[in-house]
Design a protein that fits this description.
- The protein has a single domain, classed as 3-Layer(aba) Sandwich (Rossmann fold).
- Helices cover 21% and strands 30% of the residues.
- The chain has helices at residues 13-31, 46-53, 106-116; strands at residues 7-11, 37-42, 61-69, 80-83, 94-102, 122-130, 143-147, 153-154, 170-173.
- The strands form two sheets. A six-stranded mixed sheet has the order 4-3-2-5-6-7, sandwiched between helices.
- Helix 1 packs across helix 2 (46-53).
- It is globular, with a radius of gyration of 16 Å.
- The structure holds guanosine-5'-monophosphate.
- Guanosine-5'-monophosphate binds next to strand 5, helix 3 and strand 8.
């Protein structure tokens, strides 16, 4: 069992709430008459997704995907696979992918490419956080909540070794662990 890292506060509850409120308003503006399909990326997006959809007062559908990166560690290997099949029909739908964090961009680029091949009517990306300093592939973020520094962040769905997802605030790991 690894020892617990030290956490340093990054975003308070109010800042996260303000970002989610703003994103909900933007999404509402663009999708209120489209009955979009929102696809959350597990596990990290589960809290953001549930807070976001409760602020959307128009018809929509919800689904989830789980992706896994081959290899171990926190560094994305770039070889991604879908764990389990997506049950919803994507063809012809207005699809909005809901992510927790875009880091190198490899994971989300894989998913967007996968979904694009299923011929949605439109395909956009909404992410709670973005770490642009580490990008390896270009990713268009249509709805962005918060930009994070080049640190490893946890809380509000984001984990370290499966821990800290339940924290209502967002923290970064101090020292070596946080890069
Ligand atoms: P990518 O590098 O492919 O953009 O991100 C891959 C995945 O690594 C993300 O979906 C997320 O699960 C995880 N990840 C990347 N950066 C962080 C971070 O700072 N904190 C946490 N908890 N996960 C991260």
């Amino acid at each position: 069992m690894s020892s617990q890292p030290r956490l340093h506060p990054l975003f308070a509850r109010q800042e996260i709430e303000a970002a989610v409120n703003r994103l909900a308003a933007e999404v509402r503006q663009d999708y209120h008459d489209k009955c979009p399909l929102l696809i959350g990326v597990l596990k990290g997006a589960f809290i953001f997704m549930s807070d976001l959809v409760r602020r959307l007062d128009f018809p929509l559908e919800v689904d989830f995907v789980r992706l896994s990166s081959y290899g171990r560690g926190r560094q994305s290997s770039g070889r991604i696979k879908l764990v389990g099949a997506l049950t919803s029909e994507v063809k012809g739908r207005d699809v909005l992918v809901i992510e927790d964090i875009v880091d190198t961009g490899l994971t989300i680029a894989f998913l967007l490419d996968y979904l694009k091949k299923k011929k949605p009517n439109s395909l956009k990306l909404c992410t709670l956080t973005d770490k642009p300093s580490r990008r390896q592939v270009a990713v268009t973020i249509d709805y962005l909540g918060l930009t994070v520094p080049d640190k490893f962040v946890v809380g509000y769905g984001l984990d370290w070794d499966e821990k800290f997802r339940n924290l209502p605030e967002i923290y970064y790991l101090e020292g070596e662990l946080g890069r």
